[in-house]
Amino acid sequence: MRLLTLKADPSVSRYLCNAAIALLVALPMNSTRAGELAHAAIAHRFYVAFNARNLDSLDKFMAEDIVDHNPAPGQTYGLAGVKSVATRFLRAVLRHPGTQ
């Protein structure tokens, strides 16, 4: 059995997001599907920004008073807390052997 290592590879997230969008494109168009495509486009922009380590852009995707229902130990409330946890996550991933 081959073990997979954690990699912070932006192309993987981009591939998965593009695959999800391709599945939505194959479905018949209606108002619900149009909304799904709009949500998929927003999710894609979020993943592109996150993978570029542009945490300042999270302001475009999350409210200032966002509630994290599963906060990390010591995490502060709101967007500042989410950004803090994301920063710690990215630092940990980037220190992991085999990451970019």
Protein described:
- It is a single chain.
- This protein has 100 residues and is an all-alpha fold.
- The protein folds into two domains: 9-52; 55-100, no CATH class.
- 55% of the residues lie in helices and 0% in strands.
- It has three helices and no strands.
- It has helices at residues 10-25, 31-51, 78-95.
- Helix 1 packs antiparallel against helix 2 (31-51).
- It is globular and about 45 Å long.
- The model is unreliable at 1-8 (pLDDT under 50).
**Cα distance spanning the termini:** 24 Å
Structural class: mainly alpha
Residue windows where pLDDT falls under 50 for at least 5 positions: 1-8
Helix content class: 55-70%
Task: Tell me the radius of gyration.
Answer: 16 Å
Number of helices: 3
Largest sheet: none
Q: Strand share of the residues? A: under 5%
What is the helix/strand order? Answer: HHH
Number of domains: 2
What is the mean predicted local confidence, pLDDT? 76
Question: Can you tag this structure with a few keywords?
Answer:
about 100 residues, mainly alpha, 2 domains
What's the structural blueprint in terms of helices and strands?
Blueprint: H1 10-25, H2 31-51, H3 78-95
Short recap of the structure:
The protein has 100 residues and is mostly helical. Helix content is 55%, strand content 0%.
